[in-house]
Hints:
Elements: H1 2-10, H2 16-37, H3 53-62, H4 64-72, H5 76-88, H6 93-112, H7 139-153, H8 158-173, H9 177-181, E1 188-189, E2 194-198, E3 204-208, H10 211-223, H11 247-258, H12 269-282, H13 287-294, H14 299-320
Antiparallel strand pairs: 1-2, 2-3
Helix pairs in contact: 1-2, 2-3, 2-4, 2-6, 5-6, 7-8, 8-10, 8-12, 12-14, 13-14
Amino acid sequence: xxxxxxxxRSERSRSExxxxxxxxxxxxxxxxxxxxxxxxxxxxxxxxxxxxxxxxLRAEASGREGLDDALATATLAxxxxxxxxxxxxxxxxxxxxxxxAAARTFYRWAARTGRVAAxxxxxxxxxxxxxxxxxxxxxxxxxxxxxxxxxxxxxxxxIHIRNRAILELLYASGIRVGELVAIDVDDLDxxxxxxRVTGKGAKERVVPFGIPARRAMESWLTARPRIAIxxxxxxxxxxxxxxxxxxxxxREVVHTLLAHLPDAPDLGPHGLxxxxxxxxxxxxxxxxxxxxxxxxxxxxxxxxxxxxxxxxLRRSYEQAHPRA
Length: 324
């Protein structure tokens, strides 16, 4: 498993989150195969919370040879049985789709490197992800949220100033939370109002932001030295102890400020990304421009936001038109 993890990190440039998930998924597949070979069919799919990288490493250490043998001799029927069992246990479609992707990635790598004689996942089909539309803020709600952050920042607390800058930049640029926390001070150009981020697949892109976000960033850069420490380094966004923030801390910031917005959906940082994309398209932005801003590899991913806009248009029509 360690070599597979190194492959994901060095050759595929996968995010740490994806690496942990794929390693856990493959370990879970191995345990399922071992249980089936021993006649123990009580093996149940683990939830996302239970399926941690640490847990998969413990399972690997306790039965490395058994897992390796089971994975090396798996058949297409075994993989289908694994996914079917998870579906029957109520696992989400997105979870099953991710686990199927993990299995396909693992077996492509294993076949290419001679660890298995043939790839059993070639004809493995996972259920399509649900077409559920992401929750987004209305434009007025987004404005109110940013006003709430600005009022909180009036007390000159550097953390509140930082929180305002985080929300302004997330909403203005539509970047991912992982991209946000990886930004260094030198990645920010306040002369041209752009920020350089590194997205999925280690691909860099330059994303613009507006005047309100620039002003919030200027305030934060002025306040940042008040919590910086010698070990801070070049990280742009810092926690209260002066270290680079992590995604969990940013999620807490967003949830805390959204709690002050009555009737708004409880979104995380990714919800602000969804909101930014939807509002750009509602404002007339070209779909391919939005694709480039968000760093989507496929235009089909960006097209999801056109569905959000059309759905909102339909709701407004049904509420307002006398013959809807």
